[in-house]
Amino acid sequence: MKRRHLIFIGLAVFLLTALLQWPATRLHGLFATGLVQSGVQFQSLSGTLSSGRVAQVSIRGQAVVRDLGWTLQAWRLLLGRASMHLNGGSDGTLIDGTAYVVPSGTLTLADFQISAALKSVLAAVGQANLPVEGQLVADVDTFKLRRGWPTRAEGLVTVRGLGWKLGREPVLLGDYEAAIENETAGI
Q1: pLDDT confidence band for 20 (50 / 70 / 90)
Q2: What per-residue confidence (pLDDT) applies to 115?
Q3: Distance between the two ends of the chain, CA-based, in angstroms?
Q4: Distances in Å between the alpha carbon of 37 and those of 31, 40, 105, 107, 147?
Q5: Which end of the chain is more exposed for a tag (fewer CB within 10 A), N or C?
Q6: Residue 185: which pLDDT band, with cuts at 50, 70 and 90?
Q7: Cβ–Cβ under 8 Å, residues 42 and 70
Q8: Dihedral (C-alpha) 101, 113, 181, 110: value to the nearest 10 degrees?
Q9: What is the per-residue DSSP string for 25-72?
Q10: pTM for the model
């Protein structure tokens, strides 16, 4: 092997290692303007790009998840995927799964489990005033989002203990389950 090839490989390894050890707070600073415009806010970031935690993730001022950690799956960079394993949560919200983005901008969730109070999920999507209660559990095999629109989804969504809280006593409506599948006409 030629000397300049070894120098190039050494320089590439050095740059990749430096990037993976880049502090999460500095990386957040680069994208802060775009995140604020989209309504996403992070509080108390710690760690590096390859592994870290965030105390709270909010969308439009509403806390979505607290105590969320990530681990970069660096070997998937060889496949052209920026892939992170996400896990954590508190206050009845739990998240565990893999999220990755490809150069085309498609976001994919794979083997993803989410469990949260239905009220907090509705608040995150701007429907905080609906008088319902219950627990939402989503087991997502695959979910692809391209340009803000779902293109593929497979999984199971369950609402347990659904109740209508408009009166003095909540009216229990039961448990509901929906299978999400791809069909020839769409999701």
Answers
A1: confident
A2: 92
A3: 51
A4: 10, 8, 18, 19, 16
A5: N
A6: low
A7: no
A8: 30
A9: HHHHHHHHHHHHHHTEEEEEEEEBSSEEEEEEEEETTEEEEEEEEEEE
A10: 0.75
Report the greatest alpha carbon distance in the chain: 79
On the question of pLDDT at 139 being above 90, the answer is yes
Q: How far apart are CA 167 and CA 131, in angstroms?
A: 9
Measured CA to CA, the distance from residue 86 to residue 91 in angstroms comes to 17
Pairing status of strand 82-88 against strand 149-164: unpaired
Who contacts 138 (Cβ-Cβ below 8 Å, separation ≥6)?
Answer: 112, 113, 114, 115, 155, 156, 157, 158
Cα angle at 180 between 96 and 129, to 5 degrees? 75
Q: Which amino acid is at 136?
A: L
pLDDT in tens, 32-76: 676 667 777 888 888 888 888 988 888 777 777 888 888 888 778
State the Cα–Cα distance between residues 160 and 173, nearest whole angstrom: 9
Q: Decide: 141 and 171 in contact? Cβ < 8 Å.
A: no
